[in-house]
Structure formats: C-alpha cells, structure tokens
User: Which sequence fits this backbone?
C-alpha cells in the first residue's frame, strides 16, 4: 500500500493559515464582507495547491492523464499537475517483485499427479505499458505464471522434473517472459520451491533407490574381491620364485596366530615340513615359548598344536 506524502497537507494548512491571517487584517480594516471573501478564496487556493503537488518516491513512476489521455510519465521527486484537468491513476513500482504461484494435482508427461510450488522474480521496465496495456499487471503476471507452469509440467517426465529443476526453471522463465514482455514486465528468474508427489509413489521410489544402493554395494564388493584375488595371484607367483620368502611368510603367519587368544592352532604337516622347523616337536616348542612371552591375561591357556593330515 502506497503511503501518501505529508507535503501537500502541510502546504494546504500553510495556505489556509496565510489566507485567514489576511482575512483577519481585512476584517479589521474594511469590515466583515471582504474578510469572508478572502477566507473563502484562500481556502480554495489551498485546495488547488494541495491537489497540484505530487511527490513520487525514488522507486516509483507516476502515470499522468490529461482529460483521460496519457500526458506524461513523472517521478521520482516533486512534480506539479493541473488540478481537475490532470489525474494520476497509477503509481508504478519499479523494484523487483516476487510472486508465488502453484500448480495442484497436475499430470506430468508420464501421468503422475504432482503439486509444484514456485516463486517468480520480476520487475516493471516500461511503466507506460504496464499501466495502459493491461488492466492489472500484477494479476496478469500471476495467472500467466500459473498457466505456464501447468504447460511445462504436462510436457516433462517426473524423473526429469525431480533431477533437472534448474533446466525447468529456465524454460519456465522464458515462457513467462515472452507472455509478460508486451506488458512492460521483465522476468528475472523462476525458482521451484517444492515438488510433491503421492505418498505411495514416494515409497516406491524410496525402495527403488535402496535397491540401487544395494546393487552398487555388491558390485563394489565383487570388484574388491577380484582385486584381492589378483594380488594373491601376484603374491603366489613371487613366493613360487622365492622359497625363502615363502618360508618367512609362513613362519610370520604362525607366530601371529599363536599370539592371539586362540587355544588351538591347526597347522598342516606339509607346512611344518616346508618351514624346516624341526618337525612337530619344534613347532610345539615354538608355541610354548610364544605363549610364555605373550602378556598374561586373566584366563591363560597353553596353546595346543595339532598337525593337520
């Protein structure tokens, strides 16, 4: 709502005060009749001055009509009009405006009902067209945006709408701008605030996304196992060409196993022979020494070495 300036009111009271002061002097000098005429004339002049003075804010432009025809575009600041002959029916705001609009239960291209909320940023660039070429440019912009949104939704798949909001916003902005350009309005941007889909479809899409994540996890796990198998194959080739390294690795694995809390360690007899540990007795002695050197725990069990067949 536009707030009226206090300047015309102040000018009116000032003119009335000056007129009545002059009427008082005339009453003292010539009697009552001249003073009455001076008071009436001063009141009429004050009304005309107050009606002639107009002030437009920095962001406003005034449409001046003279006897019903467009006369001038005035503002910002102070300007004068001819009372009774001139009129100011429109004050056009040139700042950036925001208009929210929505499309409820609108079918997409793949026949899915959606509710879409959006906001439009626009501004008036030609006040004369906005005032004279359309009855109410604000309402016209709101309806043009809503109908354009329904048209875009009807031509777009649900997946594209959920994933490509920026693209849809740009397309929607172009359509609205083409419709609003003859009204002197420039569309700055359109933003989709929210896209609501039916609850049942939302649950189905959630299950689909969860299944897709599980599939990707299994693919990653399988690829990891393949890589591990390749590394094992490379290690086997290295150990095949270097028996000493293989024996050292086997002894290290046995030592690490004896350090754990396991009470039974199963060692293949062929492994014992290939490591040249002096047979089963040597392995048993190694296990006992390892158990003695390990940190003591509340419950301690001596390791038992059982050669596998």
Assistant:
């Amino acid at each position: 709502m536009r707030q009226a300036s206090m300047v015309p009111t102040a000018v009116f009271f000032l003119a009335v005060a000056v007129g009545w002061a002059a009427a008082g002097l005339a009453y003292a000098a010539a009697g009552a009749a001249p003073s009455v005429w001076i008071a009436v004339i001063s009141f009429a002049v004050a009304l005309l001055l107050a009606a002639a003075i107009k002030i437009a804010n920095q962001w406003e432009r005034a449409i001046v009509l003279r006897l019903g025809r467009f006369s001038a575009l005035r503002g910002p600041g102070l300007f004068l009009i001819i009372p009774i002959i001139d009129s100011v029916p429109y004050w056009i705001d040139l700042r950036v405006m925001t208009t929210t609009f929505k499309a409820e239960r609108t079918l997409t291209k793949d026949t899915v009902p959606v509710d879409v909320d959006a906001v439009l940023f626009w501004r008036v660039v030609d006040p004369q067209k906005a005032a004279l070429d359309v009855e109410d440019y604000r309402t016209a912009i709101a309806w043009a945006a809503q109908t354009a949104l329904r048209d875009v939704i009807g031509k777009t798949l649900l997946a594209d709408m959920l994933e490509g909001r920026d693209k849809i916003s740009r397309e929607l902005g172009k359509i609205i701008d083409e419709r609003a350009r003859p009204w002197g309005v420039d569309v700055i941007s359109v933003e989709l605030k929210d896209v609501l889909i039916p609850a049942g479809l939302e649950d189905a899409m959630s299950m689909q996304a969860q299944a897709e994540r599980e599939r990707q996890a299994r693919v990653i796990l399988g690829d990891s196992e393949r890589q591990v198998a390749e590394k094992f194959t490379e290690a086997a080739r290295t150990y095949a060409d270097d028996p000493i390294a293989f024996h050292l690795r086997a002894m290290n694995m046995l030592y690490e196993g004896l350090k754990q809390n396991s009470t039974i360690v199963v060692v293949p007899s062929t492994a014992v022979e290939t490591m040249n540990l002096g047979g089963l007795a040597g392995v048993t002695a190694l296990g006992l020494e390892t158990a003695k050197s390990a940190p003591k725990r509340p419950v301690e069990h001596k390791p038992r070495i059982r050669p596998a067949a």
The chain has four domains: 7-91, 97-197, 199-237, 242-308. The domain at 97-197 is CATH 3.30.479.30 (Tetrahydropterin Synthase; Chain A).
